[in-house]
TrEMBL record:
<dbReference type="Pfam" id="PF13561">
    <property type="entry name" value="adh_short_C2"/>
</dbReference>
<dbReference type="InterPro" id="IPR002347">
    <property type="entry name" value="SDR_fam"/>
</dbReference>
<keyword id="KW-0560">Oxidoreductase</keyword>
<dbReference type="InterPro" id="IPR057326">
    <property type="entry name" value="KR_dom"/>
</dbReference>
<dbReference type="InterPro" id="IPR020904">
    <property type="entry name" value="Sc_DH/Rdtase_CS"/>
</dbReference>
<feature type="domain" description="Ketoreductase">
    <location>
        <begin position="6"/>
        <end position="187"/>
    </location>
</feature>
<protein>
    <submittedName>
        <fullName>Glucose 1-dehydrogenase</fullName>
        <ecNumber>1.1.1.47</ecNumber>
    </submittedName>
</protein>
<comment type="similarity">
    <text>Belongs to the short-chain dehydrogenases/reductases (SDR) family.</text>
</comment>
<dbReference type="GO" id="GO:0047936">
    <property type="term" value="F:glucose 1-dehydrogenase [NAD(P)+] activity"/>
</dbReference>
<dbReference type="InterPro" id="IPR036291">
    <property type="entry name" value="NAD(P)-bd_dom_sf"/>
</dbReference>
């Protein structure tokens, strides 16, 4: 197991891609901190799936759009698990709105969770590693929309474009500390955030025509790439985005 004796904090890991990442890292031998807004049934299901693999696991509730809660999340993770070696900034939200109709509250929520949170979580995590004199891994769950425009989701695309440059900048600053920083950019994945799409057969069929692989991604497709980036095999990879989209970006067009 490539991640034996490692501890990973995965934000937004009570469902979807985040849960898939947490479980895959546990399969690789890591102990896991599950994070979500509240300790609900979904959180308990994530805990049970990791615990069933024989790994240590805890849940810490925190809204990653709030800087103080980001700091507390890192502190409590270290206090409960003894250390942190891997940070996966997975939590994310999106809001559908035409640019001319978008509201400040929606913009703030999207940018706070998708960009502000990863910034200050990475900062707190890297400070911990510097104090310990150890390297580590920061992996952000971005999106193909760090490159690809998506009408009616401008705030979301802006947050993911910002996440790309955040990753590239801090990868340079943190490399001397032995900390790698990378993004994983999923395309269309079967998760709760895409439930509306999956319930619209005509719209889904149109999207699938743009995906050479002929299917939506699944959480395990993304989780496997995160596990690779967290492993010793990727110790010389930093400052880059690995796209996991079934070929979606090759020639995408809105239908």
């Amino acid at each position: 197991m490539r991640l034996q004796n490692q501890v990973a904090l995965v934000t937004g890991s009570t469902q979807g891609i985040g849960r898939g990442i947490a479980v895959r890292l546990a399969e690789e031998g890591a102990d896991i901190v599950i994070n979500g807004r509240e300790n609900d049934e979904q959180a308990r299901e994530s805990l049970e799936q990791v615990r069933a693999l024989g790994r240590r696991v805890c849940f810490i509730a925190a809204d990653v759009g709030d800087v103080e809660q980001c700091h507390r999340l890192v502190r409590e993770s270290i206090a409960q698990m003894g250390q942190l070696d891997i940070l996966v900034n997975n939590a994310g939200v999106q809001r559908h709105a035409a640019f001319l109709d978008a509201q400040a509250d929606d913009y703030d929520q999207v940018l706070n969770v998708n960009l502000r949170g990863p910034f200050f979580l990475a900062q707190a995590f890297a400070r911990h590693l510097r104090e310990q004199g150890r390297g580590g891994r920061i992996i952000n769950n971005s999106s193909v929309h760090e490159e690809l425009p998506h009408p009616n989701f401008t705030a979301y695309c802006a947050s993911k474009g910002g996440l790309k440059m955040l990753m590239r900048n801090i990868a340079i600053e943190l490399a001397p500390l032995g900390i790698t920083v990378n993004n994983v950019a999923p395309g269309a994945v079967e998760t709760p955030i895409n439930r509306e799409l999956m319930n619209q057969p005509e719209k889904l069929a149109s999207l699938l025509q743009n995906i050479p692989a002929g299917r939506l991604g699944r959480p395990h497709d993304v989780a496997g790439v995160v596990a690779f980036l967290a492993s010793p095999d990727a110790e010389y990879i930093t400052g880059t985005t690995l796209v996991v989209d079934g070929g979606l970006l090759w020639n995408y067009s809105e239908q």
